[in-house]
Amino acid sequence: MAKRKGKPKRGPAARPDQGVTARRLAGGDWVLVHPREARDRAEDLEEVNVMIEAGELDIAQDELRWLLSGCSEFMAAHVLSGLVAIEQDNDIPLARGHFGFAYQLGQKALKRARCTGPLPGGQPANLPFYEAARGLAYCLEKKDKPQLADEVLAGVRGLDPTDPTDIAAMLDELRSGGAPVVDLTFPGG
Prior knowledge:
The chain has 189 residues and is mainly alpha-helical. It contains eight helices and two strands. The protein is 57% helix and 4% strand. The protein has a two-stranded antiparallel sheet. α4 (75-89) packs parallel to α6 (127-142), α6 (127-142) runs antiparallel to α7 (146-159) and α6 runs parallel beside α8. It starts with 20 loop residues before the first strand and ends in a 13-residue tail after the last helix.
């Protein structure tokens, strides 16, 4: 059979799923759009949550590996993999890798879409991005990299000033050793 010449066929059938993307909503807010493969595995992810709640971390970890083998851009699976790495072995480098990868997926999607915000944390599709940011900031703080953790926090606040996953409070608690943090900012000053 002779090779076809010319440009490759364009259109949805000609290209694989594009990974994580960002889309502007009618009101001006942005939302992350996850790959079809990730959306199709939502039920499997619910099962992983049940496994984690039951303390079956080894089984959950195996299931997460399987989920990620079918969709490497499955942000929520990376977030859970990071949580399992911390819970099971306190493996901060592995957790940082999963959280960091998911966070970068979101950042790259936002950059490609030229999104500067707002990216509301109240949108369920945006939550894995913010959970990844929280996990990444935690790992950076634990690895004695507070400046990088602060950069993650600043990036989150630039997209949603409400800090939907309370990264600032978590960092304050980690830095104070659990002691109460007092804010001495006075009204009007």
